[in-house]
């Protein structure tokens, strides 16, 4: 039964006095559309909870007529708990959930869908992995990353209602992505299942084809509140517009400056479209940042104000100036990792909890040296995401195969892996299973071809030379003398890959090998690092302790006492691939999000030299010093 309310108590009204004027204005908004621009740390969750209370207690809206949409299950759960707490423990039948959860509920009601009709994320990954493994012309560097990105792109095609024939994948050739997409859709339909993205599309199709059903849901939900509105995609927005009509009691809360999921189909421009679709909408700015010090807020604004497509905002803070922003130039990744490790030890010694310290970076490869340093220094850390192991990359595996053979551990598998990297035109048929006489058996196979025997002799001699070198020198020899660089260039051309991507990986491996004097030392380090990384991932769901390591994307919605932004170099942030895709403004928003995770201390570092080459600080770092 619905719970009825006769108005707010004196205590409840007193609580509202703790809200800022802008928050009160949002909470007390009556009927019709409203766009709330909520900057970082501006108390948007508290505002939404108080808005729900106001609708129930003072506008006498029945709780079951209120729909609240969030972007994660965690956010929905937190909202429910905070509402329950604010209502002195009363559980109310307010509908709260993610877009997928709400739309699934509608489809379940309309089509009698059940759990057996839903393709789980695990099933989806398994299906896409099988399809990808049957693409003969596809070579990938990290399977987990590739699968995640391709699945994201499948969602983008569906959510934005793109034509698959004209869609340009960012991860592989268009024809290969088309094959993967079409095969995935075929298999999914044969299983008679829908995935989470289908829920959105099917809901849109249901409402456009059945106005009678749409009317039922419009009457059910009289007031709609949406959190993180900047993350909405086209199909989600289209369905919400239909659902909110004709009363349009739509309360959208978001921050265009924090729109960082364009790669998933989110479109910050839909916040501007909201103004066009609802010209009568009230617009409110939550202009106080309750999280960060004045210095952090001021510097973050200096960066984001360079974006041209944004709502103008004058953000303030009630906190003191705090410590000055510190930007540190370091020589290279190794020096940066030492600097960060020392900084972390210092903050912990000052009494800051390790769990209140975060190191943020644009992509996982930026953190490789730091992870190795933390493992060696026995500084506890936790990772929110899967971190690809550099040493599992096919280039690293090639190098390790060469080095194992150089150390006298010749196996048929390693020989097959490297015998034509670079091209030597050695046939698999020539390689016997007898490892002790493997070179001699290959020579016998080519006994009538002197030039082939010369190649095999040269190969054996070169590999013996590798065994006498330190790892860094051995990689240099492999690249320049043996010809591995030339192999990579040909490989990239053949597989239509960016040469620079492959050479970045190779240079990173080369750089990582520098501290080690022998090949065996390096192998020992690789084994220890790989074991430690795997253990971290296995324990990721257990009693999390230690400092946080995560990408800037993963830090969204979180806050920490102390934040370090590392590898803030041009090409790292903004990421070079994003620049190629006209993504500069989203990259700047990502940098802004990362800066505003910090409550008290924010430190930024960049390297002068990466993989043996001079590298510039990020343009975003330079923007911090404009006018200084």
From TrEMBL:
What is the catalytic activity of this protein?
Couples ATP hydrolysis with the unwinding of duplex DNA by translocating in the 3'-5' direction; ATP + H2O = ADP + phosphate + H(+)
| Residue ranges annotated for the UvrD-like helicase ATP-binding domain, each copy included | 17-293
- The organism's superkingdom is given as Bacteria
Question: What GO annotations for molecular function exist for this entry?
Answer: helicase activity
Give the region (Disordered) as residue ranges: 1-22
Gene3D superfamilies, sorted:
1.10.10.160, P-loop containing nucleotide triphosphate hydrolases, PCRA, domain 4
Keywords (alphabetical) are: ATP-binding, DNA-binding, Helicase, Hydrolase, Isomerase, Nucleotide-binding
- Please tell me whether the keyword Hydrolase is annotated for this protein: yes
Question: How is this protein named in the record?
Answer: DNA 3'-5' helicase
């Amino acid at each position: 039964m619905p719970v009825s309310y006769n108005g707010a108590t004196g205590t409840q009204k007193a609580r509202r006095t703790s809200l800022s004027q802008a928050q009160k204005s949002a909470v007390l908004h009556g009927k019709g559309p409203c766009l709330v621009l909520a900057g970082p740390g501006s108390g948007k969750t508290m505002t939404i909870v108080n808005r729900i209370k106001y609708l129930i207690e003072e506008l006498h809206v029945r709780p079951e007529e209120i729909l609240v949409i969030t972007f994660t299950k965690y956010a929905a759960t937190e909202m429910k708990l905070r509402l329950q707490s604010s209502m002195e423990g009363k559980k109310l039948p307010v509908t709260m959930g993610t877009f997928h959860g709400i739309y699934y509920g509608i489809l379940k009601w309309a089509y009698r869908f059940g759990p057996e009709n839903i393709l789980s994320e695990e099933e989806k990954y398994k299906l896409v992995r099988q399809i990808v493994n049957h693409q003969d012309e596809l070579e990938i560097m990290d399977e987990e990353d590739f699968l995640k990105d391709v699945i994201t792109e499948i969602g983008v095609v569906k959510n934005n209602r793109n034509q698959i024939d004209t869609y340009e994948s960012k991860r592989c050739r268009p024809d290969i992505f088309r094959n993967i997409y079409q095969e995935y859709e075929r298999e999914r339909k044969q299983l008679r299942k829908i995935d989470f993205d289908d829920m959105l599309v099917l809901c849109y199709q249901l409402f456009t084809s059945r106005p009678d059903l749409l009317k039922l849901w419009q009457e059910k939900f009289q007031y709609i509140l949406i959190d993180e509105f900047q993350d909405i995609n086209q199909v989600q927005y289209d369905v919400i517009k239909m659902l909110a009509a004709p009363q349009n009691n739509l309360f959208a809360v978001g921050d265009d400056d924090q729109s960082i999921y364009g790669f998933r189909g989110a479109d910050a421009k839909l916040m501007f479209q909201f103004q066009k679709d609802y010209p009568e909408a009230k617009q409110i700015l939550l202009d106080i940042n309750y999280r960060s010090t004045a210095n952090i807020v001021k510097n973050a604004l200096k960066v984001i104000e360079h974006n041209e497509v944004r709502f103008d905002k004058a953000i303030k803070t009630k906190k003191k100036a705090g410590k000055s922003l510190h930007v540190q130039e370091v020589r290279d990744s190794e020096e940066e990792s030492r600097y960060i490790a020392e900084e972390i030890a210092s903050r912990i010694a000052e009494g800051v909890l390790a769990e209140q310290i975060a190191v943020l970076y644009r992509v996982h490869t930026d953190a490789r040296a730091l992870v190795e340093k933390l493992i060696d220094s026995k500084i506890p850390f936790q990772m929110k995401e899967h971190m690809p192991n550099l040493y599992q990359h096919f280039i690293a595996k090639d190098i390790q195969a060469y080095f194992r053979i150089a150390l006298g551990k010749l196996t048929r598998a390693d020989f097959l892996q490297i015998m034509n990297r670079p091209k030597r035109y050695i046939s698999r048929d020539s390689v016997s299973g007898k490892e002790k006489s493997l070179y001699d058996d290959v020579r016998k196979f080519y006994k009538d071809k002197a030039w082939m025997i010369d190649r095999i002799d040269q190969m054996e001699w070169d590999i013996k030379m590798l065994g006498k070198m330190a790892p860094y020198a051995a990689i240099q020899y492999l690249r320049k003398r043996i010809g591995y660089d030339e192999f990579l260039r040909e490989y990239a051309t053949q597989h239509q890959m960016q040469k620079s991507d492959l050479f970045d990986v190779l240079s990173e491996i080369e750089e990582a090998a520098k501290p080690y004097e022998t090949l065996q030392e390096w192998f020992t380090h690789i084994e220890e690092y790989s074991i430690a990384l795997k253990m971290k991932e296995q324990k990721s769901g257990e009693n999390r302790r230690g400092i946080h390591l995560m990408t800037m994307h993963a830090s969204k919605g979180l806050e920490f006492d102390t934040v370090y932004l590392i590898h803030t170099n041009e090409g790292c942030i903004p990421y070079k691939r994003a620049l190629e895709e006209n993504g500069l403004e989203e990259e700047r928003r990502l940098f802004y999000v990362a800066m505003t995770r910090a409550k008290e201390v924010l430190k930024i570092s960049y390297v002068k030299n990466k993989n043996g080459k001079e590298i510039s600080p990020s343009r975003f770092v330079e923007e911090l010093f404009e006018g200084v």
